[in-house]
């Protein structure tokens, strides 16, 4: 043994040195060790892999929250165990009360040192130094457990794939059964399909048009929306029939189905373009993050659940990536169902049911696929800086769903694909600013905008799209108020659409309460809150639509009710696992590790993986609910279907 002692003092001094033989220096599998460390007394242990073990899980816990660095280094001298240089060798992470590392034999063929270095302050773990403490003795306990085998990887992967394969099989047989057993579904005759305004010279043309194949992929993606907008309405008196007190779907479905269908298809093609240009840089960036983590050993770069993260190839956390496969499978299945639904539809049906523009549904299916792709990219290296990768297409899904519900009763009035994606770009920009600058000033500004947008959209829904927000809006409001006053106090105080007004007031009050609660109590981070605003309003609008259907004498079909019930149950379960989180990108890496928890299913998937599976199923059944929401009125004349 060689001991070297040095000092910066210019004077000679005497000292004494005592050495002890450590009997517990070598750690073995399943050993539980307890120790005390301090900034002046770092501690390290040795571990050797046996010939039967390829990887192990190091689990570290502490009863206090003093900051320390956990480092794992190759067996070489000297051991780096100082606060100022411990980050320059091996794998390391900051730890306050909980930590973990997956250690592979291929990375440490000669064995390893486990090093515990307590910091002189807590800045690296909490983001603030706090008060100075003279005694910083940290109680630490750790153990080393054998990791799962390759067989566990295979079993867990096949189990998840079998779930979605089973859903495909069930969907296939249900589709076959519906085709064989539902010939009684009402199909209008060729004479009914003809528009009343068209001369019935011959039925050959309509029948020929019905026979034309209308697969979604046959639409022209090069169609420019400006070309569509130059096409005139079938009737030039829309300013007359759209100002009736009570509108029906027939009043707002006078444009050519071909034109509106082409406009809806533009959503799909624009979404594909956005998805490609958005996802390619994301993939490059997260793979670069992963490479830097592997090369540097800095495990503070990525916010993994270190107690349940399983490596594969160069990826550190394959289970959280693989569990997103449900979004992709179910998104593609929904597109296939929509294709089948469109082929069974009658494009020239101008008298019966709700006009369906299937481009919205294709876009929703593609958005679900991209949510899975980008969520997987986010989980390559989850952190505060790339949280939006996981949520950007959730905004798209919410926006498209809102537009689809609105389009159901307003076929001729809808936002263009270009304006929609410009609005989505602004939404993502606001989300980015909120994550980077989560201050009280920003929250106040956002809350004001939130309330104003709710009021504007409420007016749009209440007046069924028959009002404009321009410079003369206050002049028109004053004119209406004066006319109502002249008509008498009873007429002035009585709303034209009382049930609709009550529902909209309830929705606004709910939004105001949500905004006030977040502003006052700061319940969640802004990214989660902003997404919750969209999802809550989507649920409120769907509730409004279903309630108005019942008030109008319509009903919900059995299969639609089944989709709705399944989505509610799945969303309830999914949200439970979402809020029982295993990481938190909103804090520091050490704070995120305090949420780490062991695997929940098959020793492979944790709470967040279950959230991925359940939320994918919930969104799929939500989409199916929207697709079948108006099946009960498919054989009703549009002159009897109210607009709301």
UniProtKB/TrEMBL annotation:
<dbReference type="GO" id="GO:0005764">
    <property type="term" value="C:lysosome"/>
</dbReference>
<feature type="transmembrane region" description="Helical">
    <location>
        <begin position="321"/>
        <end position="339"/>
    </location>
</feature>
<dbReference type="GO" id="GO:0003725">
    <property type="term" value="F:double-stranded RNA binding"/>
</dbReference>
<comment type="similarity">
    <text>Belongs to the SID1 family.</text>
</comment>
<feature type="transmembrane region" description="Helical">
    <location>
        <begin position="360"/>
        <end position="381"/>
    </location>
</feature>
<feature type="transmembrane region" description="Helical">
    <location>
        <begin position="560"/>
        <end position="579"/>
    </location>
</feature>
<keyword id="KW-1133">Transmembrane helix</keyword>
<keyword id="KW-0732">Signal</keyword>
<feature type="transmembrane region" description="Helical">
    <location>
        <begin position="387"/>
        <end position="406"/>
    </location>
</feature>
<dbReference type="GO" id="GO:0005886">
    <property type="term" value="C:plasma membrane"/>
</dbReference>
<feature type="transmembrane region" description="Helical">
    <location>
        <begin position="501"/>
        <end position="521"/>
    </location>
</feature>
<feature type="transmembrane region" description="Helical">
    <location>
        <begin position="266"/>
        <end position="287"/>
    </location>
</feature>
<keyword id="KW-0812">Transmembrane</keyword>
<feature type="transmembrane region" description="Helical">
    <location>
        <begin position="418"/>
        <end position="436"/>
    </location>
</feature>
<feature type="transmembrane region" description="Helical">
    <location>
        <begin position="527"/>
        <end position="548"/>
    </location>
</feature>
<feature type="transmembrane region" description="Helical">
    <location>
        <begin position="610"/>
        <end position="629"/>
    </location>
</feature>
<dbReference type="Pfam" id="PF13965">
    <property type="entry name" value="SID-1_RNA_chan"/>
</dbReference>
<dbReference type="GO" id="GO:0051033">
    <property type="term" value="F:RNA transmembrane transporter activity"/>
</dbReference>
<feature type="transmembrane region" description="Helical">
    <location>
        <begin position="153"/>
        <end position="176"/>
    </location>
</feature>
<dbReference type="InterPro" id="IPR025958">
    <property type="entry name" value="SID1_TM_fam"/>
</dbReference>
<keyword id="KW-0325">Glycoprotein</keyword>
<feature type="transmembrane region" description="Helical">
    <location>
        <begin position="442"/>
        <end position="463"/>
    </location>
</feature>
<keyword id="KW-0472">Membrane</keyword>
<protein>
    <submittedName>
        <fullName>SID1 transmembrane family member 1-like</fullName>
    </submittedName>
</protein>
């Amino acid at each position: 043994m060689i001991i070297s002692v040095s000092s910066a003092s210019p004077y000679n001094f005497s000292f004494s040195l005592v050495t002890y033989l450590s009997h517990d220096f070598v750690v073995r599998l399943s050993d539980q060790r307890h120790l005390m460390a301090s900034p002046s007394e770092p501690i390290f242990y040795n571990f050797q892999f046996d010939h039967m073990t390829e990887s192990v899980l190091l689990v570290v816990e502490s009863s206090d929250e003093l900051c320390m660095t956990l480092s794992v280094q190759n067996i070489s001298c000297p051991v780096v165990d100082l606060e100022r240089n411990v980050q320059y060798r091996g794998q390391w992470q900051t730890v306050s009360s909980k930590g973990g590392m997956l250690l592979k034999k291929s990375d440490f063929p000669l064995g390893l040192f486990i090093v515990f270095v307590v910091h002189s302050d807590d800045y690296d773990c909490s983001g603030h130094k706090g008060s100075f403490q003279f005694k910083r003795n940290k109680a630490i306990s750790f153990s080393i457990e054998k990791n799962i085998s390759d067989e566990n990887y295979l079993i867990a992967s096949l189990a998840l794939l079998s779930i979605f394969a089973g859903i495909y099989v069930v969907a296939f047989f249900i589709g076959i059964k519906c085709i064989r057993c539902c010939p009684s579904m009402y199909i209008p005759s060729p004479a009914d399909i003809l528009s009343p305004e068209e001369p019935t010279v011959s039925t050959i043309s309509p029948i020929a048009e019905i026979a034309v194949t209308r697969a979604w992929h046959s639409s022209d993606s090069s169609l420019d929306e400006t070309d569509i907008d130059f096409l005139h309405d079938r009737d030039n008196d829309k300013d007359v029939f759209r100002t009736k007190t009570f509108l029906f779907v027939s009043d707002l479905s006078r444009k050519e189905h071909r034109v509106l269908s082409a406009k809806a298809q533009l959503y799909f093609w624009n979404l594909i373009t956005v998805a490609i240009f958005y996802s390619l840089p994301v993939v490059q960036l997260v793979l670069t993050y992963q490479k830097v983590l592997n090369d540097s050993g800095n495990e503070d770069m990525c916010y993994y659940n270190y107690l349940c993260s399983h490596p594969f190839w160069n990826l550190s956390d394959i289970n959280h990536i693989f569990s997103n496969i449900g979004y992709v499978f179910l998104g593609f299945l929904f597109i296939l169902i929509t294709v089948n639904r469109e082929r069974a539809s009658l494009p020239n049906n101008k008298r019966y049911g709700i006009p369906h523009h299937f481009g919205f549904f294709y876009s929703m299916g593609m958005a679900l696929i991209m949510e899975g792709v980008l969520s997987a990219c986010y989980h390559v290296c989850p952190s505060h800086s790339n949280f939006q990768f996981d949520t950007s297409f959730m905004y798209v899904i919410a926006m498209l769903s809102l537009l689809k519900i609105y389009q159901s009763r307003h076929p001729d009035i809808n936002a263009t694909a270009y304006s929609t994606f410009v609005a989505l770009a602004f939404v993502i920009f606001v989300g980015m600013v909120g994550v980077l600058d989560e201050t009280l000033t920003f929250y106040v500004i956002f809350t004001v905008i939130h309330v104003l947008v709710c009021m504007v959209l409420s007016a749009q829904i209440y007046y069924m799209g028959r009002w404009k927000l321009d410079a003369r809006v206050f002049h028109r409001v004053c004119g209406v108020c004066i006319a109502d006053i002249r008509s008498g106090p009873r007429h002035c105080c009585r709303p034209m659409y009382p049930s609709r007004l009550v529902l909209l007031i309830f929705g606004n009050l709910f939004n105001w309460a949500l905004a006030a609660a977040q502003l006052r109590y700061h319940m969640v981070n802004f990214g989660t809150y902003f997404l919750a605003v969209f999802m809550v309003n989507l649920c409120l609008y769907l509730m409004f639509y279903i309630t108005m259907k019942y008030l109008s004498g319509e009903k919900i079909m059995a299969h639609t009710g089944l989709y709705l019930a399944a989505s509610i149950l799945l969303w309830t379960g999914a949200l439970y696992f979402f809020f029982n989180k295993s990481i938190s990108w909103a804090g520091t890496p050490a704070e995120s590790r305090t949420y780490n928890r062991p695997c929940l299913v098959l020793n492979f998937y944790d709470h967040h993986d279950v959230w991925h599976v359940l939320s994918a199923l919930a969104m799929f059944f939500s989409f199916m609910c929207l697709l079948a929401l108006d099946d009960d009125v498919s054989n009703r004349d549009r002159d009897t279907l109210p607009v709301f």
